[in-house]
Description:
By secondary structure, the chain is an alpha/beta fold.
Amino acid sequence: MVSQKLLVLNCLAALALVVPLAAAPPKLPRALADVSIDTPGAKRIRLIDTKPGAKLRIVAVLASTCEHCEEMVVVLSTLERKYRARGLRIYGALVDEEAPQQLPKFVAKTKPSFSIGTMSQDNTRRVADFGISDHPFVPILMFVDTSNIIRLQMAGEDPLLNSNIEKNLLSIIEGMLSRK
């Protein structure tokens, strides 16, 4: 009996090393971390610096090798063009190890209407509120209000990002822009 319990405990311990546990959901609402996105030409976008006229910001965490991220940039560009006059601003950050080399290719392929740069893994963890052993799916979208508070965060596995994406995001954006 004792050896069976020990065997089960050893198996569970080994499994825990191989299969990461699901990341805890991020705390919401929470303050936006003071991090920057590095864009081509050595320009930095400090995320907590609210631009004039911005009422809602979306920070998109992306990977350069992710097809879903490429599709998301196209959807976000459409929404940014539609809602820019109402105060929507979008910022994208490639966060994978190949990001600095892949950024020009990613931008050429997706033709974003908003700035996309790179962000370090450490800053990505800080802004998206996940631990070093967590591996959330990209894209990750964070909806930030004028007080630099993240009101909503969704990751790639969220059902709202997997079907009717544009319609779902449109509804969220409309609701957030309508708040006083």
